[in-house]
Amino acid sequence: MDVFKRPRFYRSIISLVVFLVGWELLGRYVLTNKLFFVPISDVAVVFWKLVQNGQLGVDAAASFTAIAYGMALAVIFGVAFGVVLGASRTVADYSEVYLNALYSTPLVAVAPLLILWLGIGLASKVAVVFLISVFPIVISTAAGIRNVDRNFLDVARAFGATKFQIVSKVLVPAALPFVITGIRLAIGRAIVGVVVGELFGATAGLGFLIATAGQTFDVPDLFVGVLCLAFAGVSLTWMVQAIENRLVRGRPQGLES
Amino acid sequence: MAQNAPSVAPDKLSVNAVGKTFLTRGSSLVVLDDINFNVRAGEFFVIVGQSGCGKTTFLRIVQGLDQPTSGGIELDGRPLHGPGPDRGFVFQHDALFPWRTILRNVMFGQELRGTPRAEAEREARKIISLVGLAGFEQHYPHELSGGMRQRVNLARAFAVNPDLLLMDEPFAALDALTRESMQQELVRIVAETGKTVLFITHQIDEAVLLADRIAVFSARPGRVASIVDVDLPRPRTLALKRTPEFQAMVEHVWSLIAGADHDGGPPTGAHI
Predict the structure, then answer these.
(1) What confidence score (pLDDT) does residue B26 get?
(2) From the candidates B57, B63, B104, B112, which should be mutated to test the interface with A, based on the most A CB atoms within 10 A?
(3) Predicted TM-score (pTM) of this structure
(4) Does domain A38-247 have CATH number 1.10.240.10?
(5) What span, in angstroms and rounded, lies between the C-alpha atoms of B19 and A82?
(6) Where would you tag: which of A148, A184, B163, B182 has the fewest CB atoms within 10 A of its CB?
(7) Mind telling me how many Å the CA of A84 is from chain B's nearest CA?
(8) Which of B102-106, B207-211, B266-270 has the lowest mean pLDDT?
(9) Strand B78-79 to strand B196-201: parallel, antiparallel, or no bridges (unpaired)?
């Protein structure tokens, strides 16, 4: 109940209402050429139409399947490799240069190559999502492992922890906030990845919807696609935030005193 | 068996000619040189010395966190190699895991050994109430004060039921009042559990209050300058600190430290 009285809640609502009303007025009285811009009410009508004829469901499912598989692979591989990278100086020396290069390269550039290799369809989209979202997870996890307080390692060793126990009971839990930060950064990139994959070549998906709409000057369709992606980004980030709050509860909020 | 020598308990820990040399940029630094002493079962043995006398390095060697360059250590007649659950270590910085509740911090050692959860939890709850923290099992470390965290640190070491407790200046980071009450607590807990303790500190009054025997370390290289029997009556309370016998013992230890290092200050510098 109290949540509705919180400034954070009602300010978000006010902001959203102002934004939607502003959009509507802009579309009706300022940018009236429907080839460039449409009022939000037109977008809403098209949205409802696309929901009812099932097309939006098909596209959204196609995109989110690719995001889900790609992210799942990225989290599994990214955390595992990040732990090794953070714990082993040797591995870091051999691989750091490539990681930094790949992290800062716009990997969307290799999307056409992946489509060549894997064909149009789910596999190539999953590959793009994975490739683009795995690096923040690897790099953030490794940073988290390197940041683990040496005293924690001494405690674990003093109590006779095995190497595996040091990793599973000290390094990973201690690095968890870093891992989650990496995942949160990765989500934004995963959405970019799936759209890029679908722009280059796809038969379904929100990116495909946007591409088709753009080519046919169908501005309302285009906005439906974009808004769905925005909504997905917001809600996925919110989800990770909620998981984060649950997992890192009990930790001091600010700096350790 | 020990009828002939009822006052002397068997040796728990034997330290035989332990030396430690660090190599840094080609030059070598002798940190510990020919350390020899024995700790008896049930004894509270304290090492005092100035910072840099190698006492922390020595304790880490006993725990197995560092290796000696020469010599060896035996616990109950068995040579020690590496860390083991037969020793519990109380760190200077409590280093409690912030993602674990107090209960699960205390259960850490048992968990590593694969003790069944219910049993580990029962044991941990017992120790938590022994250190006076019953009711705080589900709290997280950051919700506790420095003194309470140090109690958890003690409890974590006690929970593995070690033969020997190693304590590395556990109260150094606490304020004076908290330190005094923790010293009292430690005296009580050790008396209740009958553990053998090897404790290091740079505070002479703390050493005298707690110890059955005190080893005075000299600095650079760390050597045992002398070993002092503290024959003050037990139980030791804060009132003991005001007695002339206590003061005399503190001054005696001070003179030994000053004598060991030649550059020590006057006895008035003791923390009393």
Answers:
(1) 78
(2) B112
(3) 0.77
(4) no
(5) 39
(6) B163
(7) 21
(8) B266-270
(9) unpaired
